[in-house]
Design a protein that fits this description.
The structure holds 3 protein chains of 3 kinds.
Chain A (H helix, E strand, L loop, with lengths): L3 H28 L3 E3 L2 E4 L2 E4 L1 H11 L7 H14 L2 H6 L1 H16 L5 H7 L1 H18 L3 H5 L1 H15 L8 H11 L3 H5 L1 H9 L5 E5 L9 H5 L20 H5 L5 E5 L4
Antiparallel strand pairs in A: 1-2, 2-3, 4-5
Helix pairs in contact in A: 1-9, 2-7, 5-10, 7-12
Chain B lengths: L1 E4 L6 H12 L2 H4 L5 E6 L12 H12 L5 E6 L7 H7 L2 H8 L2 E4 L5 E5 L8 E5 H4 L3 E5 L1 E5 L3 E3 L1 H4 L6 H10 L1 H11 L4 E11 L7 E11 L2 H16 L4 H5 L3 H8 L13 E4 L2
Parallel strand pairs in B: 1-12, 2-3, 2-7, 3-4, 7-10, 8-10
Antiparallel strand pairs in B: 1-11, 5-6, 8-9, 10-11
Helix pairs in contact in B: 1-3, 3-5, 8-9, 9-12
Chain C lengths: L2 H24 L14 H7 L5 H5 L5 E3 L12 E3 L18 H5 L17 E4 L14 H5 L6 E4 L3 E4 L9 H5 L7 E4 L10
Antiparallel strand pairs in C: 1-2, 3-6, 4-5
The chains are: A mainly alpha, B alpha/beta, C alpha+beta.
């Protein structure tokens, strides 16, 4: 699985798919391919809704929007089955964040205690929990306002429709700065990512190391942008199926299999 | 100058044909191989406030007999109204395209600057390229009252050849003089006024519609406006229609610039009523 | 988890909530003009999922995305900007049904009867108005789709009646004065109550 051609192809698809999605969003009703943004998108009769957006707006308004139950459930079901594929293949912010995560990993401010604090699982659960509590108490979907996916989509739409972008775009470098100081966004901070992780605990397809071929070089762990430690089978629920580990493994020891009953 | 009147059953086609016949026929009026622009009033979404599409189609059919290079029916609606939707909602687009002319949303055209050597308020004006490239212009307005200019007929109708910011400028500078100046440089060659249903009492929208079943046709837009305004005031029951017309500034100023004749006593009208 | 860790984690939680409570207070909100058929403002900010579908579908381009200067809670939600185009719910491309209400997935914008729709009112600054300064202009009166929303003083100067105005913004869009003599406010808007 480590042939150069395959590696390039996988990287190409992973980089271009989010761009393609954004182009579909930008084309909107003009091309009639899809309507909406990643927050809620309709392709023909199928509508998909961000689960975190659904939960936040439901909490903020103390009501459930019945029309969004199926669109949300669709994403939830897909995540339960396949894990965080959204993060690996669709999220437009993810690609940016993952790159900086690689950068940040080597340039964390030395000795900053906050980093290990934010790497704990409990911290990101609390972050998610507090955005939900904040939405319920403050009566607005707090994360939707600052969500980098939302910001990118809305600015793409406003740029295409009336040629202007907003100051909220500054939040993107802001989040990147957070990532350099605290911890990688996708793996440890993003509430949407955390939500998808929680749903992915039992995802059907997982990376599996063939012990016979593995030379324990730990490259798979080093290159994983979502900080899955494959060697130790840690944080498998964070796996976004981006295929980077299997592509980079020098001995082709990683396979993608249905989760075995253990 | 021809005024053709009929009954409701007469239909705009017959009124238009008769009027043009009396003027000499399109084959004689229109130069050979002309690039014709027909400019109806499609300023709004309502049929009452806009030129009758059937009448416009009749004009197109008559003009085709002059064997022009092309006939374009074009308009740029009142600011705040979308021209494509207006063309659709009034059915102007479907009816005229069926009659065999190209329908153009002028608002999408490139813009060209035209000099107005005799202009008093403005000395140049931006118009749409199609207007500039046309060699024969036919103004086909609906006869209506107007809150700012008293009436809106063939002279005011020419404002539909202007891009939005130019329309705005006219109001900032001096609306009546600018209309006169515009018509001195972009002068309609032929005017066919839709008096089938006219808007009385107030306008350009929301007035009282009256069926006059009339067409006024002329080669002089000023004279046509004068005669048509008189018919409009008569229909309203205004006491002294001819005197009221002297208060319509843009018509008087256009006459001063030599666009046409506003002195009613000097205008010869041939009036015909079809049975 | 020991006590110190618990406190830290708890502190993070409280910190997040406090931040999101503070931002809307620092970045002051303005009364935005919302699309026709919008629910009341509290509910609107709560339920709008900020998906921008209404922006995509509005045929006149009147709906735009509220930005930072419109408020933190309001950021990303739709508002009407009459300088981009009028709202045609009353007369025009949406007079059968509002396209924004049709596509809104959360019910922040709901279908409303054409006769009940009122997004706000236009107000005039007579110091800037060409007619009130003696010039010849009645464009607002000419383009207004609602009888009686604008009346004329001495047949030449416009008077605005907020109680009849439906807030379509066509007059604001068409006003030729520079700077504009008209603004669209949310005054008198009709909002729906979510049940």
């Amino acid at each position: 699985m480590a042939r150069l051609g395959q590696k390039r192809l996988i990287r190409l698809v992973r980089l271009s798919l989010p761009v393609l999605v954004l182009m579909v969003v930008a084309s909107g009703p003009v091309l009639q391919i899809a309507r909406g943004s990643i927050c809620t998108i309709s392709l023909g009769l199928i509508t998909l809704t961000c689960p975190l957006g659904f939960i936040q707006t439901s909490l903020a308004s103390s009501s459930i929007v019945l029309g969004l139950v199926v669109p949300t459930a669709t994403i939830v079901a897909a995540t339960i089955l396949l894990g965080r594929v959204f993060c690996g293949w669709i999220c437009p912010a993810g690609n940016v964040m993952q790159h900086f995560g690689d950068v940040g990993r080597s340039r964390y401010l030395p000795g900053l205690r906050l980093t290990s604090f934010f790497q704990q699982n409990s911290t990101r659960i609390v972050l998610l929990g507090s955005t939900l509590v904040a939405s319920a108490v403050l009566r607005y979907p707090v994360f939707c306002v600052v969500c980098p996916v939302g910001i990118i989509c809305r600015n793409v739409i406003s740029l295409v429709h009336y040629g202007s972008i907003g100051l909220d775009l500054l939040l993107i470098p802001g989040i990147v700065a957070l990532e350099l100081v605290l911890a990688p966004w996708c793996a440890h901070i993003c509430p949407l990512g955390t939500t998808l992780s929680v749903l992915s605990r039992k995802s059907t397809i997982v990376p599996v190391i063939d012990k016979a071929k593995c030379v324990v070089c730990s490259i798979c762990t080093k290159v994983c942008s979502l900080k899955v430690s494959l060697i130790h089978s840690r944080a498998l629920e964070d796996c976004s199926k981006c295929l980077e580990c299997s592509v980079r493994c020098p001995t082709n020891a990683i396979e993608w299999r249905k989760r075995a009953e253990s | 100058m021809v005024v053709v009147k009929g009954a409701r059953s007469t239909g705009s086609q017959m009124l238009v044909e008769k009027a043009l016949e009396l003027l000499g026929g399109t084959e004689k009026l229109v130069p050979r191989e002309a690039a014709i622009l027909v400019k109806p009033n499609v300023g709004f979404y309502e049929k009452d406030a806009t030129t009758d599409p059937q009448l416009t189609a009749a004009v197109v059919k008559a003009l085709k007999r002059a064997k022009p290079i092309r006939i374009v029916v074009g308009e740029s609606s009142v600011r705040g109204y979308d021209t494509d939707h207006a063309l659709e909602a009034t059915e102007m687009r479907s009816v005229v395209e069926e009659a065999g002319a190209e329908v153009k949303n002028l608002r999408k055209d490139p813009i060209v600057r035209v000099e107005i050597p005799e202009g008093r308020a403005i000395t140049s004006v931006s118009v749409f390229k199609t207007v500039h490239d046309s060699s024969y212009i036919v103004s086909v307005p609906r006869l209506k009252r107007h809150s700012a200019t008293v009436t809106t007929i063939s002279l005011k109708n020419m404002m539909g050849t202007l891009p939005d910011n130019e329309k705005g400028r006219f109001h900032q500078v001096d609306l009546s003089q600018c209309i006169a100046d515009l018509n001195s440089a972009v002068r309609p060659n032929l005017v066919i006024i839709d008096g089938t249903r006219v808007m009385t009492k107030s306008g350009p929208t929301g007035g009282v519609m009256v069926d006059l079943n009339m067409v006024v046709a002329s080669l002089d837009p000023v004279a046509a406006d004068v005669v048509a305004a008189e018919e409009l005031f008569k229909a309203e029951g205004v006491a002294d229609p001819r005197r009221s017309i002297t208060s319509i500034e843009h018509i008087q100023r256009a006459a001063e610039l030599g666009v046409g004749v506003a002195d009613r006593s000097k205008i010869e009208v041939l009036e015909v009523t079809l049975a | 988890m020991n006590r110190r860790e618990f406190l830290r984690v708890f502190g993070v939680g409280i910190g997040v909530i406090a931040l999101f409570d503070m931002f809307p207070r620092i970045i002051r909100r303005r009364n935005l003009v919302r699309p026709p058929g919008s629910v009341v403002e509290e509910a609107f900010n709560a339920v709008c999922i900020r998906c921008a579908r209404c922006i995509q579908v509005c045929p006149t381009g009147a709906i735009v995305i509220a930005d930072m200067s419109d408020g933190f809670k309001e950021l990303g939600t739709p508002k009407i900007d009459p300088l981009r185009g009028p709202c045609e719910r009353i007369q025009g491309r949406c007079d059968q049904k509002a396209k924004c209400a049709e596509v809104c997935p959360t019910g922040a914008i709901r279908p409303i009867d054409r006769r009940a729709a009122k997004t706000g009112s236009a107000i005039i600054n007579a110091d800037r108005c060409i007619a009130w300064r003696g010039g010849s202009c009645l464009v607002c009166y000419e383009v207004c789709p609602v009888q009686g929303a604008i009346s004329l003083m001495d047949e030449s100067r416009p008077i605005f009646h907020a109680d009849i105005c439906v807030g379509c913004g066509r007059c604001v869009y068409a006003c030729p004065a520079q700077p504009k003599a008209l603004t669209l406010t949310s005054e008198g808007e009709r909002r729906l109550w979510p049940d």
